[in-house]
């Protein structure tokens, strides 16, 4: 992104949206930033539910993004510092949610493996029973 004068924040969304510290910074802009980050969190949760993927890499990416935002927030006013605290909370929630999804995905994979083993065993037993039934029928036919 381009260089920005001291006392301003540039959003990481690449759209060039900026809010300057001081007279230009409002609670409304902070609320907008929190809403944007909350929407991003919801999108991340949906993405991982639908597609899965490398959750640890995404957590590292979010933490790196958070570190970059914190560095920018250190150069701004107390209002920008407050926004960084809120972003940290959102990023922390995202990390916890992704870790939970990773655990749930592993549990589901384990359940699928167990069911596949049960199906294989049931097919084997069915084949054995079919063979026995055929042998028994053959013996009955010989006795007739």
From TrEMBL:
The biased composition feature labelled Low complexity covers 75-85
Ranges where the record places region Disordered: 1-32, 69-91
- The protein in question is named Uncharacterized protein
Which organism is this entry from?
Answer: Bicosoecida sp. CB-2014
Its ancestry begins with: Eukaryota, Sar, Stramenopiles, Bigyra, Opalozoa
